[in-house]
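Could someone model adenosine-5'-diphosphate with this protein?
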Amino acid sequence: DAAIYLFVRVARLGSRYILLLAEDRTESYRLEEVRRDFVANISHELKTPIGAISLLAEALETASDEPDQVTRFAKRLTKESERLGHITQEIIELSRLQAADALTRAEPVDVDQLVAVAVDQNRVVADARKITLVSGGDKGAEVYGDETLLVTALHNLIANAIQYSPDGSRVGIGVTQTDGIVEIAVTDQGVGIPEDELDRVFERFFRSDPARSRNTGGTGLGLSIVKHVVQNHGGDIRVWSQTGKGSTFTIRLPEAASASGAALGA
Ligand code: ADP
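Reply:
Sure, complex below.
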């Protein structure tokens, strides 16, 4: 909405003049609102598994005579605590990324290696769904940055591509190197994202309706983490998508030579 927050100070100058000082505080109000929403969302996301865990523990106590039930409750207990662990890890990761203005560790990173590692990490899940992971494109590209963070970012994109795709489909990971920019595109043949939600997918905790209704157990933090990693590396991320056809997420990073030069102030 279009509200503007003005902070007004009034001072009397002698008996004839009044001094009015108006300061536009719209931005700091907006940031405060974002922070409040974030905390509210975190509380909500944590309360759900914690509530489930205490209910299951209670049920486990009374079910001690029935081995079948005990096994069932114990399995769900494991699943809920894994979910809690996953959410906590993502929240910590995101907070760390948001706090860091610049990278603490930066070194030349081999893009072929980056793609190979992120693809490998997703192999088991893809195989289980008979989804083929195909990587290709320019070889030998190098970017400058924190390899662990970059792997996490690419991992998240590939994991999403698998998550939101039908069994037996294809996920492509393509590298292009042009004019000092390295582009890594992850393309799927999945459910796609409704047009009016495209610019919201990078928001913290945002999940589109199809994703929610499929109950994939996501947190809505994955893309937000990707965006922060890419931005911390001086790059950007774009998305193209059509519902029912699929999506392409493209990250663009400065090539190693130009990036390290910029970082050194050259
Ligand atoms: P999560 O996957 O945990 O819900 P993300 O931040 O990774 O959270 O993604 C946010 C939302 O963006 C998802 O809930 C989903 O609606 C949408 N999305 C992300 N990647 C894809 C994709 N490859 N295809 C379709 N929708 C996607």
